[in-house]
Structures are given as structure tokens and as C-alpha cells.
Fold this protein.
Amino acid sequence: MTKNLERFLELADAAAGYIDDWISAKEQIFVTSHLDSDGLSAAGIIGAALHRRGAYFQLRIIRQLDRAYLSNISTEGPRRYIFSDLGSGQLHHIESALIDAPTVILDHHPPSIKNTSKNIRQVNPHLCGFDGTHEISGAGVAYLVARHLGASNEDLAALAVVGAIGDVQDRGEKHTLLSLNKDIIVEDAVAADVLEAATDIRVFGRETRPIHKALQYTSDPFIPGISNDSEGALSFLSDIGIELKDGDRWRTIASLSKEEKRQLNTALITYMLKRNIPAREAQSIIGRVYTLKRENPGSFLRDAREFSTLLNACGRSDQGGVGVAICMGDRGSLYRKAEAILKEHRRQLAEGLSWLVEDSGSVESRRLLQTFHSRDKITETLVGSIASMALFSRILDWTKPVIAFAFTTDGRVKVSARTTQSVIKSGVHLGEIMRLACEEIGSGSEGGGHSIAAGATIPRGSEERFLEIAERLLAKQLGQTKEVPPPSEGA
Ligand code: C5P
Ligand code: C5P
Ligand code: ZN
């Protein structure tokens, strides 16, 4: 399908018109969004736009949209529905559960069915030839609608950048956002003076971590002798003579002068090249960074990558409401609560990772994939994050997709699958694998997602069969022709 921007913007405009009518008629609006950082950003955008208009609305953050949830909300009384960062993949369920209920879906996951009934307005990039995995996120779609709901909603574009980063859509050269993310959302945010996009040292924790800690926690690119190595990071910095403290405060990468940044950047790249890291990978330490200009320096909200991590921690700790409140402007007690949630979330991730490293029998390497089963050692909301971290920090084999399992609290098994860009380029699509494997397993299994990150829920005891099916599907995909890689940024 050729890309049709005009049509896509018309869909957003029409959905905004629909919501506008609900607001004018003082209808009850019920918003459901996804718990990850893109979903929370999307909820924050819609929440702020509705709040600014004095609309009557309620908001709920969920892990997954399934039949049980839909049947529940359908009995809670007549109202208008908005789904953000979810809904398209479960369109068939929405169709049958919310018959005739006026509904707007703002999503970027592939739609499960082609045509929708008249009560459902769907805004989704896939309907207009755009790819929802890297051209626009759920928060971006929500923003396109929100900017039609009020004259001064352009400031919300910064949140859409946070959402896109949270869904790892910065796939352009040097980790740049591409396409609609870059041409509409970043543009609007810069024009509204809420965002600055610059090329800089791209390590995690630029605003909040002491410099040696930021380097130590950097895993993409992985820097041998510095990543995961606090003494190595400290001695590297002392060799190049960068002042680590300003009085008794630790300095951050964001606070370094231009000259110091240049010095650090050259030293890091030279260090990696000497250790035989390919030039392209070494240079990837320099990349696009997105700064939310109105947030305080040193706050978790100032750097879009850190903001998205904070949201993700809230969502995955079942505290999505705290994340949404921050998106809607809370900088007081809920922001402080989010900092505490992040700290605890990091502790749990570290605990999960060390279980994976120390329990050497936990990872099974198979012909085309690798797998681990955390049972109840890692919660179902964290297993995907741990699989990603283990892959990116090379604890797992970088060259094979990982399929991870965890027990759910309701007696089933959560599946999280993750892989890398280079594996996707050989034709692998994990979302398809999850979907097809679940169809084959049946018994209420549901799965789907993106090429690079996907998930499912299956019955206990079907794990081995699931792996066999997944491996068979993988073999088939690897024999197929390649996906077209996303275009790189021109400017
Ligand atoms: O719901 P869905 O689109 O929103 O979320 C995608 C998930 O996949 C996010 O939690 C994101 O962190 C994860 N992801 C990942 N590695 C990638 C791309 C996405 O773990 N390379
Ligand atoms: O839950 P997890 O982080 O592993 O999910 C990765 C991606 O797969 C997310 O984009 C999520 O929305 C998607 N997913 C899905 N259907 C499921 C489970 C996850 O589309 N049943
Ligand atoms: Zn998303």
C-alpha cells in the first residue's frame, strides 16, 4: 500500500470531530490504554486534551486487552470509548463486545480485521500505508487527534516523542526518530518550544546519573571493560582527566561543557576501536537525544529516554495511574512516588538478571532460538524487559531470538519474545510467530506484537510445544525474502 498522509490526517481529524461531539454533549468518556511507556504517554496526551476541555472522563490502564476486560466494561453502563496504544489487534473482540457503542481506537499495532462497523473509528498508520513499528507510536496517534481537540495542545507532542522512544522507534541513522515521528511530532514539539533534538553522547542517564554510572550502565553499544564494570568506568574517566564532581555533587553527562563532551566522545570511540569494536557500532555512542526543555535539568523527565523508562517502571509495577498523572503535569507527590517506583523496579530487574546469570541452567540454547523459563522468579510484567536487557547486554546470544516464559498469577504462562534489528533483517517477525503459534495451540492462547518484540499468553504445560512451533515458524521465516529496512534520515 502506498503511503497516504492526507488520508491518515483525515482519519485523525474525523476521530477528533467524533470526540468533540461527545465533549459538547457532556457524554461520559472511558479511556483504556496500555501499561507500557507508549501507552501511558498516549493516555497522558488524551487525558490532558480531555481535561483541558472540561470533559467527563475516566481512564484505565491495562496489561492486555482481552475478551474478559471488554465484556466487563461493556456492562458498566452506556458511555463512549477511547482505546489508545491497543485495540487494533483485538478489533474483532471489540466489534463483538461493544456493539453499537461509539468507540475511537488510536493505535499503531496491525489491525486484526479489515473492516469495522460504523460505531468504531480507528486511527491507525497501517490503514494508510505507514508502518506502526517505526513511523509513529500509539502516543503519536493520540497526539494527532489531541492537537485537533484544542488550540494549544502542541506542547503534548513532547509526550508523543517519549512514547515513540519507549517503543524503540528511534530506528534511523544514529537513533533518530523517522517519518511521521520526525516530520510531524518532533517538528511540532520543537515549534512549540517544548523539545530540543540534538546529536550528543547517547548514554542512558545523561541527566540523572553520575558520569561513571551512566557509562557503566551503557549496554548499547556494549563497551568491554566499561559496561557492567564500575571500576573500569572510573579508571577510564580518570585516565582522560574528566572532573567527576562539582564540589560534592556528581556531575552528569548533560552538564559537561561542549569541549568536555567532545573529549569524552573521542576517547570512548578510540577506546572501543582499540578493542576491535566495529567502527559503526563504536560511533553509535553518538546519536540523537531528545530533551524536554521545560523539565528541570537533572530530572528524570528532561531526557526523553529517561522519561520513558520512568513511565515504563510505573506501568510494569501496576502503577500506571502515577505515570499518567506525571504526563498530565504532576510534578509533586506523584512524581516523587514515581522515583521510588523506578528505584524498586530497577532493583527487581537487577534481581531478575542476576538470577538469569547465576542460575546457569536457566537458558536453553536451541537450533534457531534460545529460551528461559523464570516460573515465579520473575513476574509476568518484567520478563519481557529482562529478556531485552539480557539480549542487549550480551548475557544471551545476540544472534538468536529469545523466547522467555513466566507464570502468571492466574495460572497461565506469559511469553515474551525479543530479538535484534539484524535478525529482523533476515525476515524474522516475532509478532507473526506469536500469533500463529497461539492459533495452533488454541485453548484461549492469545499472542501478537511487533517484529522485534512480541508476546503471548498460553496454558501451562504447553511451553515445549510452543517452542517447537515457534522454531518451525522461524525456520520458515528465515527462508523468506527480507523486509525492506526503514529509510535513514536525510537531514
Ligand atoms: O505494546 P508494544 O508496542 O507497545 O510495546 C513494545 C514493547 O516492546 C515495549 O515494551 C518495548 O520496550 C519493547 N521493545 C523491546 N525491544 C525492542 C523494541 C521494543 O523490548 N527493540
Ligand atoms: O508483553 P511484552 O512486553 O512481551 O509484549 C511485547 C509486545 O507484544 C508489545 O507490543 C505487546 O503489545 C505485544 N503483545 C501482543 N499480544 C499479546 C502480548 C503482547 O500483541 N498477547
Ligand atoms: Zn505502543
